[in-house]
Amino acid sequence: MSENLQVTQSNIPGLFVVDLVVHEDQRGWFKENYQKQKMEALGLPQFNVVQNNFSFNQEVGVTRGLHAEPWEKFISVANGKVYGAWVDLRAGDTFGKTFSTEITPDKAIFVPRGVANGYQTLTENVTYTYLVNEHWSPEASYTFVNLFDQTLAIDWPITQKQAIVSDKDMAHPEFNDVIPMKV
After folding, report:
1. Could you tell me the CA-to-CA distances from 156 to 19, 92, 105, 125, 130 in Å, in that order?
2. What is the domain partition of the chain in residue ranges?
3. Phi and psi angles of residue 144, each rounded to the nearest 5 degrees, phi first
4. pTM, rounded to two decimals
5. Tens-digit pLDDT profile for residues 6-23
6. Distance CA 100, CA 94 (A)
7. Contact, 88 vs 104, CB < 8 A?
8. DSSP-derived secondary structure for the chain
9. Distance from C-alpha of 126 to C-alpha of 105, rounded to nearest angstrom
10. Which of 79, 95, 112, 141 has its CA 20 to 30 A from that of 67?
């Protein structure tokens, strides 16, 4: 747990890890999950939030993704722990580059548009939340890649056999069939 708010660039351009300060006492804990002025001063891109989404996951092993949208996301968990994985699906030199880390209440991730996002729950009763800077639209251009694609070699802590995955997510194309997203 960090004593100071920190923003660190990952190996994927525009994808940032944010170490949050969590204040704990006998009652529980408190954190500033997103604080625009402080975070932008530390290097987070300008981010104008228009929507806040929550995903509740009851069981260990729930695995979602990998989805790349045409907007930015600021991801965190309100409780529990997930293993997050990201794949750069933007056209260019970093196409296919991956990054992964655990997310707990004291860590958040800023995801740029065109970078696919996925996660796997490591504890029960996880509340996963994300802020976005554009509204969801069925007409928007999305890009997907299969969570368990061997080319990406994402080291999911829970195997594909044990993971709880939707049929829709399992039907995502293999990496070699993905058309890079133009952003």
Report:
1. 22, 26, 20, 19, 21
2. 6-177
3. -130, 155
4. 0.94
5. 999 999 999 999 999 999
6. 15
7. no
8. --SS-EEEE-SSTT-EEEEPPEEEETTEEEE-S--HHHHHHTTPPP----EEEEEEE-STTBEEEEEE-SS-EEEEEEES-EEEEEEE-BSSTTTT-EEEEEE-TTEEEEE-TTEEEEEEESSSSEEEEEEESS---TTS--EE--TT-TTTT---SS-TTT-B--HHHHTSPPGGGPPPBP-
9. 10
10. 79
Q: Which residues are catalytic?
A: 67, 130
11: its two tokens: 């190996």
47/131 Cα distance (integer angstroms): 9
Q: Tokens 């933007």 label which residue?
A: 90
Token digits for 149?
Answer: 């694609």
β-strand pairing of 107-111 with 143-144: unpaired
CATH of 6-177 given 3.30.420.10, 2.60.120.10, 1.20.81.30, 2.60.40.1180: 2.60.120.10
Q: How confident is the model over 20-71, as pLDDT tens digits?
A: 999 989 998 899 999 999 999 999 999 999 999 999 999 999 999 999 999 9
